[in-house]
Amino acid sequence: MALEALLLLAALMWPCAENLYANIVCSLDWMMIQVVPSTPSGHQYIFHDELSLGMGCPVTRIQTYVYDFVYPVYECGIRTQVVSEDTILFQTELYYNPRDPSCDCEKIPLECSTTRKSVWLTPVSTDEIKLNPSPFMADFQTTPEELGLLSSN
Fold first, then answer.
1. pLDDT the model gives residue 9
2. Which of 95, 98, 113, 144 could form a disulfide with 6 if both were Cys (CB 3.0 to 4.6 A apart)?
3. pTM for the full model?
């Protein structure tokens, strides 16, 4: 698998929510789920407070046509499984708790995998990038008096 992250498009089949669409993206550190709050028929709109990720994590960003859940992979009860030497699988759930009391709460499992060979983690050769030393720290030296001023005595 040459992709940095495996993108999954899930069509969530919920009786009271018709079909919801979610896009899942992950890296070694983050998981982002984007949920489209309107159903394809346009008959129902899902409110942000009706959705939660994993162990009760709320929507992190509300946009007109999409809700974002962006969390580190160690939060919200996101589970990590090493699939191979280079591939990691993340698993969690999306919960739908409708305001309508005639509808039942729903839970849908979500998965996303990524590789440890991410292009973001590839080391850059020091021959390619030359950084000039900072003019602020190049000749920085302190005197004992200055150090005394900074102490907590």
1. 44
2. 113
3. 0.65
